[in-house]
Design goal:
- This protein has helices at about 10-20, 25-30, 60-70, 110-115, and strands at about 35-40, 50-55, 80, 80-85, 85-95, 100-105, 120-130.
- With about 130 residues, the chain is an alpha+beta fold.
- It has 2 domains: about 10-95, 2-Layer Sandwich (TolA/TonB C-terminal domain); about 100-130, no CATH class.
- It has a 3-stranded antiparallel beta sheet with strand order 2-1-5, covered by helices on one side.
- A hairpin with a 2-residue loop joins strand 3 (about 80) and strand 4 (about 80-85).
Length: about 130
């Protein structure tokens, strides 16, 4: 029995997902990550006709996974000349990008007489970059 394949194989499929996945704003704000498990039905022309979330992570990731999979096109397949529908299980990983943070310290300077009597004040800051 022949099954639909993504043109270029699994490595091309992974590359397509990586290049086209848009991390949901809500998931970024809530720091949500994980794997969305989907069950997709593919018709004989290689089109995705039904997508169900078997296990999701929420915060917009499930909807993004559905959007992404609905845009995928598989090779068309006929088995013994008959048109067939097939089901495929797909998982899409949502992994948060590394956080960019700059840390620095500010030390207040006072004259040397004052420094002998008291310790200098140190302030620490962290800045998150998007």
């Amino acid at each position: 029995m022949k099954v639909p394949e993504y043109p270029g194989g699994s490595e091309a499929f992974k590359k397509y997902i990586k290049e086209n996945l848009v991390y949901p704003k809500e998931a970024l704000e809530k720091q949500v990550q994980g794997i969305v498990y989907l069950n997709a039905e593919i018709n004989d022309n290689g089109e995705i006709i039904n997508v169900l979330v078997e296990k999701g992570v929420g915060a917009g990731c499930d909807d993004e996974a559905i959007r992404l999979i609905k845009s995928v096109r598989y090779t068309s397949v006929r088995n013994r000349g008959k048109r067939v529908k097939t089901k495929k299980k797909i998982r899409i990983q949502f992994k948060l990008p590394p956080r960019k943070t700059i840390n620095f310290e500010v030390v207040s300077k006072q004259n040397t007489e004052d420094l002998k009597q008291m310790s200098p004040k140190v302030y620490s800051y962290s800045i998150k970059l998007k």
